[in-house]
Amino acid sequence: MDFSTVSDSELSAVQHALLATRFGRQDRDEDAWATARVVEMHIEVVEELRRRVSASGDTGRTADFERWLDWSGHEPEQASMARWLAGDPVWLSLPPEDRPAYLKRLIRPFLADDVTLRHFAHRVTLSVERS
Q1: pLDDT tier, 99 (very low <50, low <70, confident <90, very high otherwise)
Q2: Exposed site from 61, 79, 93, 121, fewest CB < 10 Å?
Q3: pLDDT tens for residues 32-67?
């Protein structure tokens, strides 16, 4: 989708709705949580917001936005993701070494390095094993 003509306020509202649907504390919506098209739309919306913030020339806002993209700063979203993964048949069927790659796709538009992804995958795996 082309979000370049959408107003800033509407684009922000779409981003918040996608964030709440995909990472909120409510029960997981199977049709929206990990569906490739919804994930891609969320990425596109965030990339357009990122482009606009960068184009504004406000280095402080740009730095804040880049920090916001870092998965390690999103504890509530991580908690929701961990809870949902505990019941995700795909996650449960994956060998441990493949789980970070699966996570990398699911957490988008957030970004995480390989170490962060492996650590989070390990934490979720331990949580599932204890339950």
Answers
A1: very high
A2: 93
A3: 777 889 999 999 999 999 999 999 999 999 999 999
- Residue 75 falls in which region: left (phi positive, over 0), alpha (psi -120 to 50) or beta: alpha
Domains of the chain by residue range: 8-130
Higher local confidence (pLDDT), 26 or 125: 125
Spatial separation of the C-alpha atoms in residues 18 and 83, rounded to whole Å: 18
Residue type, 74: H
For residue 109, say if its preceding peptide bond is cis, omega within 30 degrees of 0. yes
What's the predicted TM-score (pTM) here? Answer: 0.88
Cβ atoms of residues 120 and 112 within 8 Å: yes
In three-state secondary structure terms, 70 is strand
